[in-house]
Amino acid sequence: MQFQKKYIPFIIGVAIAAGIFVGGKLNFTDAPDRLFSTNSKKDKLNRLIDYIDYEYVDEVNTDSIVDVTVNGILENLDPHSIYIPKEDMERVAENMKGDFVGIGVSFYPYKDSIAVIRAIKGGPSEKAGIKGGDRIIMADSDTLYGKHLNDENMVRKLKGPINSKVNLKVYRKGEPGLLSFTVKRSHIPIKSVDAVYMLTEKLGYIKINRFAESTYKEFKKGLSKLQKLGATELVLDLRDNPGGFLGVAEQIADEFLEKDKLILFTKNKRGQVEKSFATKRGAFEDGNVYVLINENSASASEIVAGALQDNDKGTIVGRRSYGKGLVQREMDLGDGSAVRLTVSRYYTPTGRSIQRPYRNGHKDYYDDYYTRLKSGELIDPEKIEVADSLKFKTPEGKIVYGGGGIIPDVFVPLDSAMHSELLTYLRGRISYFVFEELEKDRKAYEGVSRQDFIDTIEVKDALVFAFQDYLNIRTETEITFVAYHNEVKQYIKAALADQLFGEGAYEEVFNQNDMMIEEVIGLSGNE
């Protein structure tokens, strides 16, 4: 099963600050008996828990007290050191691994049932014959409908061991009775590369949403495809990418850099430095690359952008990135839970630390997007605050700055219309509206190819007005789209493309009027 949700910039920023990590290298020099020896501080905590367990007047769940204690300790460190309870570990691990075992459908919990948005291409459900719009009513003897069923229960009942079979009962509109399907569970990818396609005859495009275990393999496959189509230039879209594994970021940066070029270095509390250099394997060393970043591009995204910028490779386009230069390592706590602890800082090849300050507390750190918006730096690059003490030079003499994110070579302001509060409010609701519109007549799009849909299908004005009525009835509001008519139309078409075709169709539609894409196409044509 695969969830495909489009997150607004604000939410992504909070997610990054909550602890999206870069997997680092952890080398303890102290012996285990010294590192984890008993001392008065640990004794104090252990005794307190024991007192509560055995002496406190009421029964107390001390597991929850321990969780609160751990979170309280980490909150006094930095914004990216976090605690992962054991009940969240499987979900977190799956997301970063890049796949899971399931039946292979994207779905909505819709009207107390599982409504299939589409079966994942090549997956077991598609092979079995399940289609978009189907309602999965039963899995073996388990019912999958009713108000008691939440997302977690739905997912659990459809997952199972690899190659195990599940018998599904499915309601399909127009059929006289329930349909039966036997689906053999298999590995289902959680894709981290959203889209791969050609923007022009020579300019390819790859969108990466995070840096998971599978990302490098996905990226290499996409890059090879574009090169076969004639790409000599590449747009690497890292907007709203919160990061992931440091090693994966190194591998992708290596594809653009010549052998022995420094990619980054890390430094821990003992001053130990570890450097990472490019190898001879780069497949795009001679090609021109444009890296798209924005205020929600963080961590591993900044490693790639910083490595290329500091080596005078390609062009960084967009707005100042998030500013996360801390490296976390996940460590098991022995009971199924884990902690992601900051163990070092990373630096770009010129020696920049791009970690922005967090000395004013976590709330100010989380609210940095609004600070930037209020200061005007998302509209005017002259409003970006830089410090001369954090000025560095690249080998070709370009001035770059540390102290809080990667400042792009070419600035593109925030599109105030496209990213207004109204439209971010609408995005999730548009997906549900589009699903219901497709339910009225899915056959209307039979025979329409993916490319024909993207190139020729136009969303009619009537559909925008229908969405306006849909929203006002359900929210008891009086919203009108006079000022945002074309933007809403584009959102609707992108959501339609996503639900009908997937495979990057959303991005290909949405990018048609994207300011950064238009900027890059202009730069490419002038070079």
From TrEMBL:
| Listed GO CC annotations | outer membrane-bounded periplasmic space
The record's Gene Ontology biological-process terms are: proteolysis; signal transduction
Which protein is depicted?
Answer: S41 family peptidase
Alphabetical UniProt keywords: Hydrolase, Membrane, Protease, Serine protease, Transmembrane, Transmembrane helix
- One Gene Ontology term of the molecular function aspect: endopeptidase activity
Segments forming domain PDZ: 89-159
NCBIfam families associated with the record:
prc
SMART domains named in the record: PDZ, TSPc
**Which family does the similarity line name?**
Belongs to the peptidase S41A family.
Pfam families, A to Z:
PDZ_2 (PF13180), Peptidase_S41 (PF03572)
The record lists the organism as Snuella sedimenti
Q: Does the keyword Oxidoreductase apply?
A: no
What InterPro entries is this protein classified in? ClpP/crotonase-like_dom_sf, PDZ, PDZ_sf, Peptidase_S41A, Tail-specific_protease
Chain segments annotated as transmembrane: 7-28
